Amino acid sequence: MKNIIEKRTIILYIILSILFIVVIGAIFNQIAKHYVISSYEGQLQSNGEYISDQLEMTSIEAFQHDLVFYHEQFNVDLFYESEVEEQLLHTFNTTELNVLRHLRGNLEYVGEIELIEDRLITTYQLEDGEFLTIATERLPLAALSTTIWWGVFFFSLFATVLLWSFGNRLYDSYVKPVIKATETSKELVDGNYQARIHDAPYGIAASLSQSINRLGRYLEYITSKYENQNSRLKTVVNNMESGALLINEKGVTRLVNESFLQQFSIEKTPFIGEIYYEVVEQDELNGVIQEAIFTETKQHQSIELKDGRFIEVFVAPIKDQESHQARGVVVVSHDITDLKRLERVRKDFVANVSHELRTPITSIQGFAETLLEDDSIDEDKQKQFLKIMKKESKRLNILVQDLLDLSVLEKDEYELKLSTFTASKLVNDIKAIVDQPAEEKSLNLVFNVEGDLQIHADYYRLYQLALNLISNSIQYTNEGGDITLTIEKDGDNVLIEVQDNGIGIAEKFHNRIFERFYRVDKARSRHSGGTGLGLSIVRHITEAHDGQIQIESREEEGTTIKVTLPQK
């Protein structure tokens, strides 16, 4: 049924062909009928003229004999009627009475030929009131029509078989391949580049199928190559640290990577295919893009975001290589927050170092000049000045040493000098240094250490770490306060904890106290002789050991700093 529906065009052509043959048959039937009638009319007219000339009424018996003679001789039926003598003579048999009745009622059509019940009939006037009607035998019109229609039927049947066979061949060889080629072309247009024509016709259809298959393979190859290139491009673009945005000449976004979306906190969907200023809510960035589009020149600007981050933006127009017309712009952005922070740290470092160095140097220089230029200064005053100069030079030496230690720790190629030692040895060495300053402030130092605890680390740096922590606690703990140093095993790690009940640190300063030269109370720090580098050194030593550092502190309640060092 499906094949018949698919071949409805052939069926339609067959039906139309049959109808055409039937019409031709009907016309041919009429032509044949006309030809037969015309032939019989000519014969009838010739025979009628001869018979009418030969007949002569002598007696009824003789006339009847003549009628029979001519009836047999010319194979016609004769009908004689005399209106004068009221005589009726004929050669018709009883089965043809209907014809006789019709003849008697139509004798006025003299000289004309009529077809009555498949017989041609004509009438001649012999004398006044005497008429002779001659009728041919029955014409073979029915048989002729039957023969013609049977011929038409068989010819139609033959034509149907022929057309169906030829149509199937034509359909399979040309129509079907064209339909399949059309369907395959539509699939290729819809993006199914694996569609193929698997039939193997011959001739032009075969060339068409092969061409479409080659086109499909080429499109599949080109698409695969494009998808691979596009995939590689997306992989490269999406894994770039720099943000990338491509905008066409109509201001529509065509390409964007994750870095750009993250840098400017933009929702990913929808973005591609949208007008850039409808999805980018950063006014400064939109202004730079608009300037680059209108002026067709490169633009560069550093943008500060609301969250405090800094983004450096480069916008360059894209021009056609042949026409040199602008085809859009490409935006490349870099997060320079860390660079800005480092720049700020550098500036602060230079400023702080300059300030920290200037104070002791100024004091030493001033007192030295006083001692050299003023001879009236008594011995006690001179000793006082010299003590101040010694103190300031000591402070200057400590500052320089801390700077040297910090610079060494910050080097990428710095390597720890690892060794294994006991925690008790580390504590004893620290205790020897901090006992005197603690006694001067009447501080209660407590050391909680497992005597046989083994530590694998850089001894000098760990000593420096613990000493800086305890020194800070001594400086910022009021007289009579408590300071506790605890060193213990914590799983696979060693925990070093320094706890005091000193002045404490407000929570808002927790994230910055490990920065170089950062002081919560600058006046008190300088008065105590601190350099502001101690906790920064502690952080660098902890990171060099792949450890972690935590601080817990509240104002007027004290501070606890925990350092966790892994043991490998």
Automatic annotation (TrEMBL):
GO molecular function: ATP binding; phosphoprotein phosphatase activity; phosphorelay sensor kinase activity
The protein's Enzyme Commission number: 2.7.13.3
InterPro entries named in the record: BphY/WalK/GraS-like, HATPase_C_sf, HATPase_dom, His_kinase_dom, HisK_dim/P_dom, HisK_dim/P_sf, PAS, PAS-assoc_C
Keywords: ATP-binding, Cell membrane, Kinase, Membrane, Nucleotide-binding, Phosphoprotein, Transferase, Transmembrane, Transmembrane helix, Two-component regulatory system
Residues of the Histidine kinase domain: 352-568
Catalytic activity: ATP + protein L-histidine = ADP + protein N-phospho-L-histidine
Gene3D superfamilies assigned to the protein according to its UniProt record, in alphabetical order: 1.10.287.130, Histidine kinase-like ATPase, C-terminal domain, PAS domain
GO terms under cellular component: plasma membrane
NCBIfam families in alphabetical order: PnpS, sensory_box
Protein name, entry field: histidine kinase
